[in-house]
Design a protein that fits this description.
By secondary structure, the protein is an alpha/beta fold. It has three domains: 5-30 and 528-717, Endonuclease Chain A (Endonuclease, Chain A, 2-Layer Sandwich); 37-337, Polyphosphate kinase middle domain (polyphosphate kinase like), CATH 3.30.1840.10; 348-516, 2-Layer Sandwich (Endonuclease, Chain A), CATH 3.30.870.10. Helices cover 36% and strands 22% of the residues. Helix 14 runs parallel beside helix 15 (567-578) and helix 17 (655-671) runs antiparallel to helix 18 (699-717). The chain is globular, with a radius of gyration of 28 Å. It starts with a strand and ends with a helix.
Length: 719
């Protein structure tokens, strides 16, 4: 074992090797970026896509909605966690030395600026551009007589019956408002009393009601929408006869949504998670969003009821919750305002044999989604379910689609008498309820459903199929970087490896045995598996590059991931940079490593790609003295992925698969000057500079063009 690795006690009864930082010059004070502020910088990059006129108009609206979705999760989990640390004695400084209180102060300032710019984008850029295309957003004051009559009738028939007015006074306590639900705060006057006494009431708006309403078309090619909250404010008087509505403002509360479960004390994890999900609506409030213009009396009362300080309140210019604008993209049939349609390509090699097993038995197959179709991954499991020669199927499920063909195939395989095991991760954040549903359906079909290692989320993406063949039993495996979800596979960039290599398939079988049985210290020689050998091995690989650079041998690291947070890994990258290793990092979101700092990281470059597709693949390249090592897999370089999750990185050894990544995928993303931004030493992102005469180049467009060319070649070859 390398001298840069030591063993320490790991949690949850698992012994795992832990890497430590390489030595660095004592005179250098290492610098790091704050995790939370780095994520906000990424979210601003998403907002830039909404602001950019280079993107189709309805796609810009979609990016604007994604900003809101990202902020929701950020407050529900990250800000909620910092608030708990602030209120406890356990709060520790972040990697950059900030206390929870200091982080919260900077986060709030950053989010206030981001939200302000988000609404400027909507009002000043997108609304006028939409109107120019015949897509209008009207307020009730802008309705003509027929539109107002239609809206009032719509309210009476479709909205009023499901609204429940809730008074707030001595006899009516403040209601328990659901997480992220829309509500309308009303101030009412009784005109028959002499004193001008205000009464408060709240109208919770059921999630079942569409937030964006389309008025009947009166002119060809023109669409007119209005927001449901505006209609409710207009017609709320119908719920309070005898009172006069003085003011009405929509608001929304975000609550702590993390699950707190001590697995070692829980006999039935599934039932416990179901109970916790029901309790989420009672989570502590962490953010209040409310329309601007609310009176100070109402505002103060709302903050007191929610136990929120004023700095946790975000006053908006409206509309509340821009996430609801996603429906505009879905409901508007304007192809000219969206990305051109793209059909994922089929790999020609997969048509060469009657079944996928025939192909994979002869060679590995690497798929790059969404450019390559995800259908072969689904077919891999579907063919196994129907194939009489298949004896067993083992499958991890972290997230999947609402109508999952994978779950259907596993259920069918079980009904046909095959031994089927599904490892369902019940704690996949925000998919807990869906996964409980799948777990119960699979159990009803006779599938063995298990929930993995205590204290660890199972995040690896693995399928294992055992098949009886003339020469004996053979294993087939799918290993991926993304989830078994055909819908997100059209939106996320990921890698899939289909292989029958005995050394890999045997270790995947061992991984499943570890997850379903008992094993404290499993041995993996080819796979890098967290929480066992992944962290230590990554540190060894970085150390080897540093040693090669110091000895004058070829040394290079290229790492593509979603997040880079682990301090030991960052310190080792700094040490490798000081040794002369050239390091290129492609980090989609959070990055705590500070690049380009003299004496620390001048040989490290960090870039971020935000484009049509969500960059989700993890790829790791080590020059290894001229014999490159290449891995794909499920793990980011975060402490949680190394020690609190079950992850798997797999070696990519097939020559054709290696060529696709080493000669095309990684160089293209490092060449991108359209969707890419470089991370600067001050933690901001800047456009990639173009040399004079250098053409614009988008990696995602390049991959789509290549996939289209492959598809055309398949059509030519098809009889």
């Amino acid at each position: 074992m390398s001298s840069v690795v030591k063993r320490t006690k790991r949690p949850a009864k698992i012994t795992a090797p832990v890497g430590r930082a390489l030595p660095a010059a004592a005179t250098v004070r290492r610098q790091y970026f704050n995790r939370e502020l780095s994520y906000l910088a990424f979210n601003r990059r998403v907002l830039e896509q909404a602001q950019s006129p280079l993107n189709p108009l309805l796609e810009r609206v979609k990016f604007l909605a994604i900003v809101s979705s990202n902020l929701d999760e950020f407050f529900e989990i990250r800000v909620a966690g910092l608030l708990q640390q602030q209120d406890s004695t356990a709060g520790e400084p972040s990697i950059d030395g900030l206390t929870p209180r200091e982080q919260l102060k900077q986060i709030r300032a950053g989010v206030h600026g981001l939200v302000r710019d988000q609404y400027r984008c909507w009002h000043d850029l997108l609304l006028p551009a939409l109107a120019a295309e015949g897509i209008h957003f009207l307020t009730p004051a802008q309705f003509d007589a027929p539109q107002r009559a239609w809206a009032e009738e719509y309210f009476e028939k479709s909205v009023l019956p499901v609204l429940t007015p809730l008074a707030v006074d001595q006899a009516h306590p403040f209601p328990q408002l659901g997480n992220k639900t829309m509500n309308v705060l009303l101030t009412l006057d009784n005109p028959e009393t002499a004193e001008n006494e205000a009464h408060f009431a709240i109208l919770p708006v059921p999630r079942s009601l569409p937030r964006l309403v389309l008025l009947p078309e009166t002119e060809e090619g023109v669409q007119c929408f209005f927001f449901l909250s505006d209609l409710i404010k207009l017609c709320a008087g119908a719920l309070f006869p005898g009172y006069v509505i003085r003011s009405a403002h929509a608001f929304r509360v975000t609550r702590n949504s993390d699950l707190y479960i001590d697995e070692e004390e829980v006999e039935n994890l599934l039932k416990k998670i179901e109970e916790e999900l029901r309790n989420l609506r009672r989570g502590a409030a962490v953010r209040l969003e409310i329309e601007d213009g609310v009176g100070e009396e109402e505002f103060g009362a709302l903050c007191r009821y929610l136990a929120l300080p004023p700095e946790s309140v975000f006053r908006t210019r409206g509309p509340l919750n821009l996430l609801r604008l996603l429906s505009l993209h879905e409901r508007t049939d304007r192809p000219d305002l969206k990305y051109p349609p793209f059909v994922p390509a089929e790999m020609p090699v997969l048509r060469a044999r009657p079944t996928l097993f025939d192909t994979v038995r002869e060679r590995d197959v690497l798929l790059h989604h969404p450019y390559d179709s995800f259908a072969p991954v689904v077919e891999f499991i579907e063919q196994a379910a129907l194939d009489p020669a298949v004896l067993a199927i083992k499958q991890t499920l972290y997230r999947t689609s609402g109508d999952s063909p994978v779950v259907r195939a596993l259920s069918e395989a079980s009904r046909r008498g095959k031994q089927v095991t599904a490892l369902v991760e019940l704690k996949a954040r925000f998919d807990e309820a869906n996964n409980i549903k799948w777990a119960r359906e699979l159990e009803e079909a006779g599938v063995h459903v298990v929930f993995g290692l205590v204290g660890h989320k199972t995040h690896c993406k693995c399928s294992l199929i055992v098949r009886q063949e003339p020469d004996g039993l053979r294993r087939y495996v799918h290993l991926g970087t993304g989830n078994y979800n055909p819908k997100t596979a059209r939106l996320y960039t990921d890698l899939s490896l289909l292989t029958a290599q005995p050394e890999l398939t045997a270790e995947v079988a061992q991984l499943f045995n570890t997850l379903t049985g008992l094993s404290r210290t499993p041995e993996f020689r080819h796979l890098l598996v967290a929480p066992f050998n992944l962290h230590a091995r990554i540190q060894e690989l970085i150390a080897a590059e540093a040693a090669n650079a110091a000895a004058g041998r070829p040394a290079r690291i290229i790492a593509k991931m979603n997040k880079l947070v682990d301090p030991v890994t960052i310190d080792n990258l700094y040490a490798a940079s000081q040794a002369g290793v050239q390091i290129d990092l492609i980090v989609r979101a959070t990055c705590c490593l500070a690049p380009g700092i003299k004496g620390q990281s001048e040989n490290i470059r960090v870039r971020n790609l935000v484009g049509r597709y969500l960059e989700h693949a993890r790829v790791y390249y080590f020059e290894n003295g001229g014999q490159p090592l290449l891995y794909g897999g499920s793990a980011d370089w975060m402490t949680r992925n190394f020690f609190r999750r079950v992850e798997a990185l797999f070696p990519i050894s097939d020559p054709e698969s290696r060529r696709r990544i080493i000669d095309d995928l990684l160089p293209a993303e490092l060449r991108d000057n359209v969707d890419a931004r470089r991370l600067l030493p001050d933690a901001t992102y800047a456009p990639v500079p173009l040399a004079e005469g250098e053409p614009a180049f988008s990696a995602q467009n390049h991959f789509m063009a290549a996939a289209t060319a492959r598809a055309a070649a398949v059509e030519v070859l098809t009889p």
